[in-house]
Amino acid sequence: MSHKIIVAGVPVDTRHWIGGERVASAETFTDNSPIDGKPIGEIARGGPAEAQAAVAAAKAAFPSWAATPRAERARLLHAVADGVEKRIEELAIVETTDNGALLRSHRRGVMPRVAHNFRFFADWLLTLEHDDFETRGHTNHVSWDPAGPCVLITPWNAPLMLATWKVAPALAAGNTVVLKPAEWSPLTASLLADIAAEAGLPAGVLNVVQGYGAEIGDALTSHPDVRRISFTGSVPTARRIAASAAANLTPLSLELGGKSPLLVFADADLDLAVDLAVEQYDNAGQVCLAATRLLVEEPVVEEFTRRFVAKATALRQGDPRDEATDVGPNIHPRQLEKIDGFVRRAIGAGARAVLGGHRQDGQFYAPTLLTDVAQDSEIVQEEVFGPVLTLQSFADEEEAVRLANDTRFGLAATLATGDPERAERVTARLVAGTVWVNCFFVRDLQAPFGGSRLSGVGREGGTWSFDFYCDLKNTVTAPKGWNDHG
After folding, report:
1. Could you count the other beta carbons within 10 Å of the beta carbon of residue 391?
2. How far apart are CA 76 and CA 84, in angstroms?
3. Cβ–Cβ under 8 Å, residues 192 and 163
4. What pLDDT is recorded for position 2?
5. Which residue in 28, 377, 458, 470 is deepest, having the highest Cβ count within 10 Å?
6. Which residue in 97, 146, 137, 88 sits closest to 116, CA to CA?
7. Neighbours of 335 (CB within 10 A)
8. For the whole model, what pTM was predicted?
9. Per-10-residue mean pLDDT for the chain, 486 residues long?
10. Catalytically active residues, by annotation
11. CA nearest to 216, candidates 1, 16, 4, 469
12. How far is it, in rounded angstroms, from Cα 135 to Cα 196?
């Protein structure tokens, strides 16, 4: 039996990658393409045995990798980046087939960013230092010691980019990794294992295991040899992971959902504000950072709505492999049903769909804008994770901030205004891990990234990533001559 499938002409191994070898499982699960709903292939379905094997491989490889000089670790990560860049087209078409995101975005933005993730953290590693400081003549020296095996659990909406956002700093820090990709989009993680091996990454330093949720996840997150867990996904899953990790007090980094606002003031450039709002349909609305709550100042709400509907109506929905497509399919029939349920309940409660509000053929949902929504309604308070936005108006700055902060989440916020002083006042009061002013989705890897409230725990990016993936040590040394008794 062959363990490789051909995806748009690209061979992909469907087995796990453990200890530098391909490992099959007794059971498999079917991976379907959201483009047409058809099966792509059967994927090795791991469980506790595979989890144990992967952690054991990571533990065995850790001492040598942790002792590898920084410059050599950085060189190998750059080699991985080289391998990614050589296979951008292959990675792009496989990921588009697997998760339905736009091929043009994968080619031009996402896969180059994957390579950049490795290069950035490799270079940051080489500059990572803290100035020594003195305490009563004693010298304090801070160092970042590798923590140990890390379990990284990643989502399906940007599989490889979000995986390598975790894998790259964890490896740079001197840790070994067990990567568990989402079961709805596992394929590019398998290709990453091939690329890492070709780049010369030692066996056991990167392991990839596939499987369904808790079947394999509980065994990974409760393992006593795991020293760090980083997870991007839903709040319910995060709660389960936290409970599983609690027995060992394993440190967690959790980047969870959002219900982010876009605040549009009357003094904003309205064309810019509309562009920012329509951009929230990117990736069929399957973006954790998306500003799904449009909050518009009363004097311009009618004009904003008119321009928004006109621009959003022009979006082309269809095959994500087509260069002209703007909005692709949603990832899975279950996700599509979830999205539709949110919208149907909202309309039943009195909301009005001024755009969309219905399913399309296949796994497509029409870009939707709902008005006449109450602040305490489900559609305003809960994450839909689809191409569904709500529109509310506000009378003044005070109300804008109150509405913006009135959810359980705090991942991001976007602000459109022509007044720099207002921007400063409002951003200071917003509860969010990231705030964009007159822009959206501009991210620098040296900046801290994470959420407040139910949007997450901790920050990653730049030095914050190394702070998480390392055990920080402070060494205090007595002054020269401390043992000189005269």
Report:
1. 24
2. 13
3. yes
4. 76
5. 470
6. 88
7. 22
8. 0.96
9. 90 98 97 97 97 98 98 98 98 98 97 98 95 94 97 97 98 98 98 98 98 93 98 96 97 96 98 98 96 98 98 98 98 97 98 98 97 98 98 98 98 98 98 97 95 96 97 94 53
10. 255, 288
11. 16
12. 44
For residue 340 the two structure tokens come to 């539709």
H/E element, 400: helix 397-405
pLDDT attached to residue 486? 39
Per-residue pLDDT at 213: 85
Q: What is the DSSP letter of 298?
A: G
DSSP annotation string for 367-402: -EEEES--TTSHHHHS---SSEEEEEEESSHHHHHH
Classified as helix, coil or strand, 446 is: coil
176 is written with which tokens?
């070994």
Q: Where are the beta strands (DSSP E) in 3-161?
A: 4-7, 10-13, 16-18, 21-23, 28-32, 39-44, 133-135, 138-146, 150-153
**How many Å apart are CA 332 and CA 350, to the nearest integer?**
28
The pairing of beta strand 261-264 with beta strand 293-297? parallel
Query: From the CA atom positions of the chain, what is the Rg in Å?
Result: 24
Instruction: Give dist(CA 324, CA 382) in Å, integer.
Output: 32
What are the structure tokens assigned to 29, written together? 């699960």
pLDDT computed for residue 481 by the predictor: 63
Do residues 220 and 58 make contact, with C-beta atoms less than 8 angstroms apart? no
Predicted confidence at residue 483, as pLDDT, reads: 58
Instruction: Kindly tell me the burial class for residue 323, based on how many C-beta atoms sit within 10 Å of its own C-beta (0-12, 13-18, 19 or more).
Output: exposed
Q: Are 172 and 77 in contact (CB under 8 A)?
A: yes
Nearest-CA neighbor of 207 among 149, 253, 250? 149
Q: How far apart are CA 387 and CA 284, in angstroms?
A: 5
Q: How far is the C-alpha of 161 from the C-alpha of 413, rounded, in Å?
A: 22
- Where would I find the H helices in 234-392? 235-246, 270-278, 301-313, 333-348, 378-381
Instruction: Quote the DSSP letter at residue 476.
Output: E
Give me the pLDDT at residue 461, please. Answer: 95
Task: Round to whole Å and give the CA distance between 77 and 17.
Answer: 18
Give 131: exposed, middle or buried? Use CB within 10 Å, 0-12, 13-18, 19+.
exposed
Torsion 196-111-39-45 (CA) sign:
positive
pLDDT at site 141:
96
Q: Which helix (H) or strand (E) element contains residue 249?
A: none
Confidence at residue 79, expressed as pLDDT on a 0 to 100 scale: 98
Helix, strand or coil, per DSSP, at residue 215: helix
Report how far residue 439's alpha carbon sits from residue 409's, in angstroms, rounded to the nearest whole number. 21
